[in-house]
Amino acid sequence: TLFPYTTLFRSRCPLLVLRGADSDLLTADTLQAMRQRGPRAQSVEFAGVGHAPTLLHGDQIAPVRDFLAAP
Fold it and tell me: Which strand (E) or helix (H) includes residue 62?
């Protein structure tokens, strides 16, 4: 279970979670439950990607760049 890490989702700091849609470690249901614990958390899901996106392609880099550039 990933729920020991849900305290991160209660933080007042912005949080971005990147999830590969084909991940067998971080399920969509688990991510949804985690996000419900912290509404400031944002998430991006990448189709056709396993657990950890490589961030080597523009469509994976852009959400991170935009998140970091946001006020």
Answer: helix 58-69
